[in-house]
Amino acid sequence: MGIEKIIEYYKNPKNRGKIENPDAIGEEIGSCGDTMAFFVKIGKKKVDGKEVDYIKDIKFDTLGCAVAVASASATTELVKGKTIPEAKKISEQDIAKKLGDIPEAKFHCIDLTLGTLRNTINNWEKKNKK
Ligand code: FES
Questions:
Q1: What pTM was computed for the model?
Q2: How far does the centroid of ligand 1 lie from the alpha carbon of residue 53, in Å?
Q3: What is the mean pLDDT of each successive set of 10 residues along the chain, which is 130 residues long?
């Protein structure tokens, strides 16, 4: 059930905190006024013999609600180790699926998470002129 998953993540968040000297930071303010930030370290790995950028480490910080903490935790688990194009494809549904049943009224908390992730990746791409 979604509620149990959310409580579990809220009590024991994954990857909450900051990264020293991150390669990029992304922030967002949700429609509710709550804030979130992601910090990432980008590494290089070989995929099909080609060197690609991937999310080596990611942490989050939020002043958001329990669903925001849970969806940010779930998102860090979803994108850690993923290449940048893979991480860009993460959708609201992917996050919601990982959390279980989310009441529709709480979907804006997932939107806040996804917006923060996209800002983080955009900031990294801008910095690296991708
Ligand atoms: Fe603001 Fe959930 S109510 S992030």
A1: 0.95
A2: 31
A3: 85 97 98 97 96 98 96 98 97 94 90 98 92
